[in-house]
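Hi C.,

You asked whether I'd gotten around to modeling the 223-residue construct. I have! Everything is below, sequence then structure, no commentary in between.
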Amino acid sequence: MKAIEVKNLNKYFYTPQKFRVLKDLNFTVQPGKLTAITGKSGSGKSTLLYLLSTMDSDFEGSIRIAGVAVQECNKNQLAAFRNKNIGFIFQFHYLLPEFSVLDNVLLPALQLGLQCRQEITERAMELLRLLGVDSQANKRASLLSGGQQQRVAIARALINEPALIIGDEPTGNLDVHNTGIVLDLFKELSQEKGYTILTVTHDDDFARQSDCRIHMMDGEIVP
């Protein structure tokens, strides 16, 4: 099964006038791959990412994620699917500053409610160890460095074992050293742990080291 399958995807904006933002996009993403979406500002990459996140279901064509046809789901079904199957990592970490690192990671799984707190806590600590921040588990998130906070945000995105991890400029606020750490983590998570990771990036080095690259220009995918 393909992780993502997009067929004849078109997206329109209607104000101030009708405008086609995405134009007949067709592509697939295989499971366990790190894929970079690149392109200049206004190329349509963020619009595409938003559709693939299932936050916007107003489009023409077909999007399948982990075998589920997004266009056939209502808003409640999409919300449930998103909570279980998609992990989000943003340019800014969006941690709750007064909560501990551990509590930040626990929150999505507690909201999903499929496991008891002890099981979720064990899973969270395992992820924090994988990401090298388990020693910070009981610290307030606001006391961590920027690189540590982004690694905690990655752990939070992984807590529900999603089918797809979506990153919106996840290294945009990081220096070269921490960008390298996050890239290495993404490669490990995809190659060794089997996670499918799709991320928008302006970092050419990041994109070159990804398994696949989707380059966009004027709403189209170009070589």
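If it helps when you're writing up: Helices lie at 45-52, 75-85, 101-112, 117-130, 146-158, 176-191, 204-209.

Thanks,
B.
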